[in-house]
Amino acid sequence: MPTTRARVLVVLVLLLGLLTVAGPRPATAAPTLPDSLWFDETALTVRNGRFTDGHGREVVLRGYNVSGETKLAENGGLPFASVADARKSAAALRALGGGNTVRFLLSWAYAEPVRGQVDTAYLSAATAQIGAFLDAGIRVYPDFHQDLYSRWLFDADSWYTGDGAPKWAVDLGDYPDEYCGICPFWGQNITSNAAVTEATYDFWHNAHGLQDSFLATAQKVMAYLKQNLTADRFTGVVGFDPYNEPHPGVLDSGQTSRSWERDVLWPFYERFRARMDAAGWQDKPAFVEPNLFWNANLDFQKQEGGLLDAGQLGPRYVFNTHFYDQKAISGIFMWGKAQDGQYTGDFGTVRDRAAATGTPAIVSEFGHPLSGTVSDKAPTVLKAMYQALDSRVKGASWWADPAASGPVLSGSQWQWDIYHGRHHEPMNGNPDKVRTAGDAWNDEDLSAVRLDDSGNPVLRQDARLLDRVYPSATSGTTVAFTYEDRSRDGSTTLTWNPVPSTLPNVARLVGTGQYALLKWRSGSGSAPTELHLPASFPTGSTTVVSDLGTAYAPSAYTSTTPVAVTPEPGGTGSRRLLLTDTDSGTAHYALVTNGATNPSADLLAAARSELTAWAAAQ
């Protein structure tokens, strides 16, 4: 007995010693994805007006829409012809496009081709394709997509087409023959085509029980996804977008756009929210969109809205909106290129509406045509949009007023379609109007990606614009963020946020390279702050200057390394910078750049001294 007791005491002493040295390990689920660490793969929630993960970190969702292929018939309303293509696309989106999230398009027409009967083969294929993105470490929010209500409203020889509602839903209505008149842009059908406006009106007023059918199908789709995705995969599903680009079609007598949102649209979202709960999505928010034209930048197109009467949305909803520069797209109302700070006001309005509703915002669609008469504007328009997602302060003013930046906005660019230019879509079922070019839908061309002749995904836009540094998870609260991507407009390098001359050593360190600067206030969690590192920031030539420390070619992550680089989850080769603080409520900063080559210790120290003084003065 004495010998046994002594052995037990020795074991207890050793165990207590190990706990004292190593510290208690945070309680969390074991990672399942390749390259995962202990703080990865937690579900997102909405808290204090921000997306937060299981460690209380503030999360930013960046990525693309996957994809407009869903609008076409060639792959049966699915984004991909196969799961293998979905996996190829997901890996490229992570490694080339820098995305951590996708808005995954689904089709009501293909989910419920016969009234009251969901197509489980379609749902099975969609679930497998969603799983391909989740397996690549990419979060997903599905979207029931529609444009111009339905393809079945349009004649075989029409100039335009639509997507969304199934044929049986259109057959229930006695709609006029579609006609848009003089409509050089497909979106004009939303307000000018009587077939579209009347069918849309019927949906919102539940004529023929259309809305009831839609909601019943939505619940079945969500229940199917919950049941057929593993628990680990379902953790990566962040919410659901109930309805793409809602518009009343026709207003009732005395009704305004604002009262339509209050009396028609918002009750629909409450009904959809109830369906989410019934399907087992209680802990995931609905990504609700206001009236399509609430923030249009053409005065004659703008309609009052923005869910002004919805009150505090709280954690069960996300303020979800789109933004396209219709002035630039028109080719008439905006001459020339976009400039520094072009969209800080528009995106500032998005921030303000989200803050007023007490929930985060996401710009779930933004983009610009990549071919045609206005495509020359795309490099500057997209740069200005990403700039406005990062901060509400234009580059020329950022260093002097970083605290006015506001939250970093989440966003999903339109779009990511690997079949770009390789389609074979009989428009409106017409074998004499097979569309192969661009996005193969209403003459659009916005895909950021295509396949090369070897079948490999390649970017169609400047990688410096798309693959960006952004704070994917902040341990605490983001105070300010900026990224100078040095993207190009033709042969011209666009530098809208130069380092000021008052910081000469920082300017010397950055040189002509790209840089990002994050200011944050630490939280109470132990998980590190993460910034996505683009491919243009190879570990061996990345420099970090922070109050936490300085590093050139940062080392691999350990729990005691304040500045480190490690792969992002999913095994795609994408990487992240990890910044570990050990305090709570303390202001921190970190500059990351690829501008210097093996900077001296003296330069790093001088740059750190300048940044520390700058940060203290703000």
TrEMBL record:
Q: Which Gene Ontology BP annotations are present?
A: polysaccharide catabolic process
Lineage, top-rank taxon, reads Bacteria
Query: What does UniProt give as the signal peptide span?
Result: 1-29
Q: Which UniProt keywords apply?
A: Glycosidase, Hydrolase, Signal
A GO molecular function assigned to this protein is: beta-glucosidase activity
Q: Where is the Glycoside hydrolase family domain?
A: 86-399
What the record says about family reads: Belongs to the glycosyl hydrolase 5 (cellulase A) family.
| Name of the featured protein | Glycoside hydrolase family 5 domain-containing protein
**Origin organism of this chain?**
Streptomyces davaonensis (strain DSM 101723 / JCM 4913 / KCC S-0913 / 768)
Tell me the organism's taxonomic lineage.
Answer: Bacteria, Bacillati, Actinomycetota, Actinomycetes, Kitasatosporales
